[in-house]
Design brief:
Oligomer: heterodimer
Number of strands of chain A: 0
Structural class of chain B: mainly alpha
Largest sheet of chain B: none
Shape of chain B: elongated
Radius of gyration of chain B: 29 Å
Largest sheet of chain A: none
Strand content of chain A: under 5%
Number of helices of chain B: 12
Radius of gyration of chain A: 21 Å
Distance between the termini of chain A: 30 Å
Distance between the termini of chain B: 105 Å
Order of helices and strands of chain B: HHHHHHHHHHHH
Shape of chain A: globular
Helix content of chain A: over 70%
Chain lengths: 276, 273
């Protein structure tokens, strides 16, 4: 067996175990139930809809549930499973074998990313089901409304792009976990980084608009260090009636994958220097 | 002994953590710069289509306590719940709260026209009355003050609609709303007529915009312009759409021809007559 195949096998084993541990957690099920409950309640929430069309409103809630609960799941499960190995000392046993620390990091990441993929797939399937039911009701009541009100392909593409973003978030959490001492610190810092990444574009606005030197230096640092998470919000475009083109989806996906690679490399670099 | 070694003695692991932090920062900056050609055009496209909220919008949202919904989802839901607050403040005739909440709603979710148009109407048509009532009522407040209040509120609404037109550049409903404010609150018929013309020429414009443009030209005494406009308009109107009202347009053409005293041979002859 070549060195690469052997390495992939070890990564696969760690990923598989991480995946099994994650799906067994009640937290995963609880978040899934919450997201599903929110989606199911869109019929009731539609009463509060003033601005957008009902279909757009339901899609917006669906993407909101995906983003909110997906982010919570990614950060919490990544940090929890990483520190569980360290606190229970199983990482020591594992790393005493011919397993590189980089393989451990990548295996953990892949295991969590697959769990998040399942979460995204279930929430997206529920969203598409709710939309399909409502779409058929609207079309039955008003045959002049058109042939199709929802572009399901674009909804799936926008959800897939969110999954890539969760990958970046998971890799960031692993980087934070690689040098921090507690699970709580990693989780809290990862949520802070999540907010910063979502508002990163504002730092660039400050930089472009000008202002005080201190503000511009601070804005430049924030804009240069953190990835732009708003870029992944293609769900907004799907519900705006102007769905994103294939080239945009590809560019955003490549952007996310590049960041995942960099954050995983940095997490491996940092973890190699950590005393366990 | 180097500074890093001295610091390491005081704070165990300092040198290691400093190295990790430096490498991490350098790698992230390099990645960010390397990905700019990929990210820049994509972000321009995404942002131009309404993603991301500007800084004043974030400030408004934080002030209204709905920031949790802004980080990537629930924009419509957050805006809808805030719109209920707008209505509650509107019922209480609370001017600052209503205006702030309207700004927050349109910043959080600028996509629906409903928020822009109804918010502008509250500002331009309702708020002047609140201010006059607070000043003692229509019997007490002098006409000059009432006119100034009308103009101030109209300008605020027009500023808001200008923001709306940046988000929805070719929407005739917004242009008509601006025209109405010029006509009803600022009593500027010339500008209103021009805006109705602009609205009528936009795709998807309601048929009445073109008719009102002609009526405003008539009111301004520009009958020949109104006549020419209606002559161009009438042949384009569909016969099977009730809202197009070609018979009303023809009747107006005849009225203007009477007012202009045109001889029978110079009058408009529709193609189907």
């Amino acid at each position: 067996m070549s060195a690469v195949a052997s390495s992939l096998s070890r990564v696969g084993t760690i990923a598989g175990n991480t995946f099994l541990e994650a799906v067994r957690q009640r937290f995963f099920i609880a978040l899934l139930v919450l997201a599903a409950g929110l989606l199911a309640s869109t019929e009731f929430l539609s009463e509060f809809n003033f601005g957008a069309s009902e279909i757009k409103f339901i899609a917006d809630i669906g993407f909101g549930a995906l983003v909110l609960f997906g982010s919570v799941l990614t950060i919490t499960v990544t940090a929890q499973l990483f520190f569980a190995e360290i606190e229970s000392r199983t990482a020591l046993t594992l790393l005493a074998k011919p397993v590189r620390r980089g393989e451990f990091i990548v295996g953990k990441f892949l295991g969590v990313w697959i769990v998040v993929l399942i979460f995204c797939a279930i929430v997206t399937a529920l969203l598409c089901t709710v939309l399909a039911i409502r779409e058929s009701e609207i079309l039955a009541a008003d045959p002049d409304a058109g042939e199709a009100l929802v572009s399901y392909g674009h909804i799936i593409a926008a959800a897939a792009v969110q999954w890539v973003k969760f990958g970046v978030l998971g890799a960031i959490t692993l980087l934070l976990g690689s040098f921090s001492n507690t699970n709580l610190f990693s989780v809290a810092t990862a949520f802070l980084v999540l907010v910063i990444c979502h508002l990163q574009y504002l730092a660039r606005d400050v930089w472009e608009r000008g202002g005080s030197v201190v503000a511009r230096i601070g804005a430049a640092l924030l804009g240069l260090v953190f990835p732009n998470f708003q870029l992944f919000n293609l769900g907004d475009l799907v519900t705006s009636g102007e769905p994103p083109g294939a080239s945009l989806i590809v560019r955003v996906t490549l952007y996310g994958i590049a960041y995942i690679a960099v954050f995983l490399a940095l997490a491996s670099f940092s973890f190699r220097r950590r005393e366990i | 002994m180097s500074a890093a070694a001295q610091a390491d003695g005081l704070f165990p692991g300092f040198r290691e953590r400093f190295t990790i932090a430096t490498v991490t920062l350098a790698a992230l900056v390099a990645t960010n710069l390397a990905l700019r050609p990929l990210e820049g055009p994509a972000w321009e496209e995404v942002r131009a289509r309404g993603a991301g909220i500007d800084a004043p919008g974030i400030e408004s949202a934080v002030g209204q306590g709905v920031v949790a919904g802004l980080l990537g989802g629930f924009r419509a839901l957050a805006a809808d719940f805030l719109w209920m607050k707008v209505n509650s403040d509107w019922e209480d005739m609370n001017l600052p709260a209503t205006e702030t909440a309207i700004r927050a709603v349109t910043a959080i979710d600028p996509r629906p026209l409903y928020f822009w148009i109804n918010g502008a109407r509250m500002i331009a048509y309702d708020m002047p009355n609140w201010r006059i009532e607070r000043g003692g009522g229509f019997d007490v407040v002098p006409l000059s003050v009432r006119t100034r209040v009308d103009e101030e509120q109209a300008r605020i609404a027009l500023d808001m609609l200008a923001d709306a037109r940046q988000v929805h550049p070719d929407n005739p409903a917004l242009v008509i709303e601006v025209a109405n404010i010029y006509l009803r609150r600022l009593h500027d018929t010339t500008t209103a007529a021009e805006l109705y013309r602009q609205a009528a020429e936009l795709p998807g414009a309601p048929f009445y915009a073109a008719r009102i443009h002609a009526e405003l030209l008539r009111n301004l005494g520009r009958r020949e312009e109104a006549h020419q406009w209606l002559l161009r308009l009438h042949p384009t109107l569909p016969r099977d759409v009730p809202e197009a009202m070609p018979e009303v347009v023809l009747a107006r053409i005849r009225e203007i021809e009477d007012e202009l005293g045109l001889p029978v041979e110079s009058r408009y002859q529709p193609a189907n007559q």
